[in-house]
Specification:
This protein is of the alpha+beta class. It has a domain of 140 residues: 2-Layer Sandwich (Beta Polymerase, domain 2). 51% of the residues lie in helices and 11% in strands. The chain contains 21 helices and twelve strands. β9 and β10 form a beta hairpin. The longest helix is centred in the last third of the chain and has 22 residues. The C terminus is likely disordered. The structure holds adenosine-5'-triphosphate and magnesium ion. Adenosine-5'-triphosphate (ATP) binds next to α7. Magnesium ion binds next to loops.
């Protein structure tokens, strides 16, 4: 174990939240070890501002819980304690210990604390241990540095510091074993490489193709949690590129994976959505997973809707059932909560409504609560090279007008939407 004294690293207590300092100091006062660990130490060493503070201790979850009135024990796969200070939550984990590697798969070991499936997937991991043991249980070397806020020392057991200096994302231990234990670690490797703009250690990268298929074992709900971290943390475009490069997109969105392979326009649209999300996050504008999900599945929906229209289905029902089908197929891999799938489908269905520039309906559309997202989505389609007949710039100007002017202009417009004059033929020919 390498110990780096206070004058040889740049971490200052000033940059650590009061909550985290309080938790560590009370644990130490009660005779326990307590360290800042994980992303916070990594980001502080890189000179950044951690988004949250995780603490590792030798105290059990029950002991931690007993020490803090404002705390609760959560989790099953990993039992951890959340200590709340106003809006901030400090996550306290007890050092994890070694697994008994000779244990029979799927049988409980260490007194019902750790559990592995027949394929080596870790189902539960609640064997407690020392700092050294905890360090090697973590995912990446750069995530396994510990800061002692009492002595101001940094503890490095896995060459985390030299990997930080080399700007390298390296899995701890034997990559195949660690990916087999938890395939989500492959996604984490890509996520941190994108976030930190680090390269991926060659041994770590080489193990990905061999283990990628194991992602199919991950529960849909966990994949959705990971999806949020991958695409809503400000580095979606870089993450997306790495997912393509390492062929992991198909384990999150199989249909999109296929579609982007054969259709450059689909790829352009999804990527444009990622870039635009990153820009919004950089400008502190709100973002919703519904928008990115809408882009990820749109090429799939669009293709299905066209097929249905070729079989004589009118555009609106075609789009509706294409959307329904795409959502239920995607849900087999990744769960999409209703609060996101509903707005996502509204964004799609709005794409047809936006083709309609005529009459009161068009004038009123601008005030609809989904207009903004749907209009942004239309611009994105154009940005990705889709020919919408300059619909985007029409709506750009139109929405700026006061209601009376919109009504006037919409009355003058030609094309679908003018009520009676709309012919059956024309409706059938308007593609989504
Ligand atoms: P950030 O919070 O900035 O996204 P982080 O490194 O804190 O990054 P978390 O997901 O908060 O990431 O996890 C906290 C720490 O827990 C990680 O730094 C890592 O050491 C460990 N960890 C998280 N997930 C895993 C995993 N799947 N396998 C092993 N260790 C993990
Ligand atoms: Mg964290």
């Amino acid at each position: 174990m390498k110990i780096i004294p206070r004058d040889q690293h740049c971490i200052s207590r000033k940059n650590i939240s009061d909550g985290a300092l309080k938790v560590m100091s009370r644990l130490r006062g009660d005779g326990h070890q307590a360290y800042l660990v994980g992303g916070a130490v990594r980001d502080l060493l890189l000179g950044g501002h951690p988004k949250d503070f995780d603490i590792a201790t030798d105290a059990t979850p029950e002991t931690v819980h007993a020490l803090f009135r404002n705390s609760r024990i959560i989790g099953r796969r990993f039992r951890i304690v959340h200590v709340r200070f106003g809006r901030e939550i400090i996550e306290v984990t007890t050092f994890r210990g070694h697994h008994d590697n000779d244990a029979q798969p799927t049988t409980e070991t260490g007194g019902n604390h750790s559990r592995q499936s027949a394929s080596g997937l870790l189902l539960r991991d609640n064997v407690y241990g020392t700092l050294e043991e905890d360090a090697v249980r973590r995912d990446l070397t750069v995530n396994a540095l510990y800061y002692d806020a009492g002595t101001f020392e940094v503890f490095d057991h896995v060459h985390g510091l030299s990997d930080l200096e080399r700007r390298s994302i390296c899995i701890i231990g034997e990559p195949r074993v660690r990916f087999t234990e938890d395939p989500v670690r492959m996604l984490r490797v890509l996520r941190f490489a994108a976030k930190l703009d680090f390269s991926i250690d060659p041994d770590t990268a080489r193990a990905i193709p061999a283990c990628a298929h194991l992602l199919a074992e991950i529960p849909a709900a966990r994949l959705f949690d990971e999806f949020l971290k991958l695409f809503l943390a400000g580095n979606a475009a870089a993450t997306f590129d790495l997912l393509l490069e390492h062929k992991l997109l198909q384990y999150l969105f199989p249909q999109t994976g296929e579609e982007t392979k054969r259709n450059p326009a689909a790829l352009a649209l999804v990527r444009a959505a990622m870039v635009s999300t990153d820009q919004r996050i950089a400008q502190d504008k709100p973002v919703t997973p519904a928008f990115i999900l809408a882009a990820l599945l749109w090429p799939v929906v669009q293709r299905r809707a066209w097929q249905l229209q070729e079989h004589g289905e009118p555009p609106i029902p075609a789009l509706h059932s294409a959307g329904q089908q795409a959502v239920s197929e995607a849900a087999r891999t990744i769960s999409i909560p209703k609060r996101f799938s509903q707005p996502m489908r509204e964004i799609w269905e709005f794409q047809l409504r936006l083709q309609n520039r005529r009459g009161r309906k068009a004038a009123e559309l601008v005030d609809h609560r989904r207009f903004r997202a749907a209009y942004d989505f239309l611009l994105l389609r154009e940005l990705a090279g889709e020919d919408t007949g300059k619909l985007g710039s029409w709506w750009t100007d139109f929405q700026e007008l006061p209601m009376e002017r919109r009504l006037e202009q919409a009355a003058l417009e030609k094309g679908p939407g003018g009520g009676r004059s709309r012919s059956r033929k024309r409706r059938n020919s308007s593609k989504a």
